[in-house]
Task: structure prediction
Amino acid sequence: MKRILIFLIVSVPILLTSRSCIDTIDFRGKEMESKIVMYSLLQPDSTIKAFLSFSRTLFGNTSPQQQITNAVVKLYRDGEFIETLTYVPPSVQTWYPEPTPFSEYVSAGETKPLPGSVYRIVAEIPGFKTAAGSASLPGIVPIEGIDTVSYTRDEFYMYLGIKTRFTDPAGKDNFYMISGYQKTGYYSGNPYQPWNPEIPVRVFEYEMDINADDEPLIYPFMNDDIFNIYPYNYFNVFSDEMIPGKGYELNLKTDYRKVDTTYYEFFHPTVILQSISEDLYLYLLSFSKYLDSYDDFFSEPVLVYTNVENGLGVVGAINSSKMTVEIGKYPVDGILYSYGD
Amino acid sequence: MRLRMFAFLILQIIALQVPAQKVTVSGYISDAGSGERMIGAAVYEKTSLTGSTSNNYGFYSLQLPRGDQEIIVSYLGYEQESVLVNLTSDTIINFNLEQSVRELETVTITAYGSQNKIKSSVVSMIDIPIEKFRMMPVLLGEADVLKIIQLLPGVQSGTEGSAGIYVRGGGPDQNLFLLDGVPVYNASHLFGFMSVFNPDAVKSVQLYKGGFPARYGERLSSVVDIRTREGNEKEFHGSLSVGLIASKFTAEGPIVKDKTSFIISGRRTYADILAQPFIAMGNKDPNYKSNGGYFFYDLNAKINHKFSEKSRLYLSSYLGKDKAYLRYKDTPDYYEDDGHKYEYTDRIGMGWGNIITSLRWNLLISNKIFSNSTLTYSNYKFDVTTEYLTRDITAKMKYHDYFRYFSGIEDIGVKTDFDYYPGANHTVRFGAGYTYHHFKPGVTRISFSASDLAGGIDTTFGDQKIYAGELIAYAEDDFDITARIKINAGLRLSLLNVQDAGYLSLQPRVSLRFLATDDLSFKASYSRMTQFVHLLTTSSVSLPTDLWLPVTRKFRPPLSDQIAVGSYFRLPWQLDMTIEGFYKSMDYLIEYREGASFTGSATGWESKVVNGKGWAYGVEFLIEKSLGKTSGWIGYTLSKTLRKFDELNFGRTFPAKYDRRHDVSIALTHKFNERIDIGSVWIYGSGNAVTLGIMEYSPMDYFIPRYFRDEKITEFPYRNNYRAPAYHRLDLSLNLHKKKNKGIRTWNFAIYNVYNRRNPFFIFWDDEYFEEADPFNPGMTVTTARPVLKKASLFPIIPSVTYSFIF
Result:
């Protein structure tokens, strides 16, 4: 009995301390106020639009957000009122698993942003603080040239190194994003048989996966990143901090399926160098870090940037230049093509 | 004319410093029973109250006028001793104080001794009452030096149960722990829940939070100077203690009586041993065997030899290690998909520990100059290993995966300090030292071998060793400018040479005391501190994986400037009160970038952190009662701590993680009689600051990567925006002592967290599921998830019992 008693005296506290206790607690923070979320991207030759939604508490209603039809969205250019944007009901959903949370407001006058002007969008929704954000179109930075080199990966796939040259405009801070799309065509028939003109070349067009792992402007930490611990740069954004006013060659890669031009196959990658506003750069940079770490218990939480006063989201601007590399010709007269999946 | 005036002033100052017709009285103050030298004992002349305190080696030196003088020595818990002497020339008087048999309530309080704190020029220093240690309630029956320090104003604990300290807005890497003068890099056992300092081996603990004398440096926020006992030089003694999680022993005694003595003290936890029956119960499946555990041990040993009254040598050493391990072997009785039968063996181990050694030589050069020369060695190592062995029994093949990561830091140092007593109430301290640092920030070895694969893989990377040399020199002067104004002024010089970079830091220090009355003084201090190491940690808990790294070209040495002002006075009922205000600015601090994840690797660490600055300011109140049957203290701190980093929180100022507005601690002990005493502790602290989002919103669909299309962005208003629930708890203890034939046995009964407060260890969002009406199918319900905020707490009410025997 004495032994049992001693055993209990010793073991009970150890067992008590070996398990943690979990309790639900009331959130007593001040940050329960719902805010207007506004996104707008100014692009040359595109009508100005604003997309509105609102932030919601984690505790609250989880049903899809209703469309905001009663917002008053005003557009100003260089401080002067231009027009009130018009609500446009959503079109058919494509990929969203639920109705879009955004309510679209479009310039009825088809106002398009002009270089050098500052555009301010002010959104008023009853029950919310008025939110506002501004942006101006950055100057276009042309791609001066692209050099490619291909590497065989295996029997069917290759790497394509894409060295993209541009010159950073001097005298101001510039921010960029690199993206691209590709158009490819593959012969649908048997590649081990002679070409059959009755069998079409299938044409696909989709977003290009750009690998910028070897590009220090986009991944400045890559050399010491043994454990791949640095935030992934999902949007391939970078600043000119390391190349102010200088010419530079971006070291990019993509992979693609080998094409056989004798079968009229082709691969046309297009690189897009987007000159972006600083606010958009900060938003994308912080959002990228957020995506990389939001479910990591050990990482410090990331605050996603906003330039929307009294609200969330971003009002930004993009000005793009493109250049396409053509491997194989397309279209070729007399060749049968089919499109899509 | 100006030159004459200047010369006159200089002569006047010199005249003030030159003792007229004075002689020097010096010697050592020791415990009569053990011969142990006493630190901080008050020595003074009865009439003039000219006095001093003994230094870290029990030495004192006074300048007194010739003639009959009555010299009095006092120390808390000891009988006061006085001696009447006719001083005609320099005299050596050694004092041996007897422990008070009348106990604390009747110890005579001398004017000088009780007011030492009031009269001293030192600001923001607290002498930790070691003698009260054992009366205080403690977690799992294990007394802990750092947990007592956490109860003092200006000092915070990190999280529940943690032994880490955060002083006046500083981080965990800004505290210098000195064990017999040697820096301890990892002061934690048991993942930070206990400190490495075994209280049985500790003689004195002094905490400096500000007003740093020039002899201390190399950290921004605090210095915890821990001195270990020397061992009884008169007779053999020892103690044994058996607690819930650890047992310990101490043995001490003379090797050559009154000349050479030793002390050895050790402890070990045994949760791993106690867990074995439970593990055995879980191992009923003959195909599956597992084992695991955790333990730590430490050992303090010290030997000292007295060559003469003027020369003494100490050799002290600390050895401590923590080890956690997990092993299992699985031999499933079924065949895998490939038709083969396998045996899996996994081993995971983690170990870390310090080795600290110092060789110290005390030499009394004259009765006015005391020197202490030290050779030091400090080594901290961390090692984690995982090993997976797969045996294909069918094909008689073997596959072996091995991963090992280890890191560490090693210091070898030499230092000489001098205490010079040129006149009455005047002490000059100066010294210099050199430390050679060897950082091993993180080495990873990965190997893979298979019996059907020639060669395999065996690679090591990150094996970057960093060497640094650090030179320090200091001088400080502590003297009375007038009868009421005392000053301690000093300068510390630090020079670091790391890789191809050099850093020189000049750190001025000054403390001023104005004695308004014998019971009231006002003090002010300014100190600049710098440090040449960073601690890379993301966790609020002290983990062995935390990495010490040197400053680099990119990350300059952090520095702080602190101003502290205070008032010290006596209240009725033998109460002493201290009020101090402080303002501290810190520059070149480092923090992890937002989104940077903790991996324990130092590789590329510079890219993961950012530079910034911080501020802390506040006011601290401390009411102490050191005497009488009831003793203890009440401390309260009102403070604010902020940080500003260009690359964090969008460059805006934010509260530091351990910004704690209110911090209260009440620690009381009461001694009923020789057989029974009780202790209680109540603490309250505002909740820690954490970054917590409550609102969420959809990202811009134009930019959502296709695999994140369902994700929402959580809005974090700013870094550390949310306050966790307040921390508070009450602990109680009861000590029952009984004199036995060969010693004293003590039963300690303690209850930690008496009212079972579930204090937050960390906070997190979780999903709570509930039923609600299905809007699309009337009469039906659907299960919906809703996020709820939860806190995990670690220690509920915990009773403990400890048995100890002192002989």
Observations:
- Residues 2-17 of chain B form the longest helix (16 residues).
- Confidence is low (pLDDT under 50) at residues 6-20, 103-114 of chain B.
- Residues 36 and 528 of chain B are 35 Å apart (CA to CA).
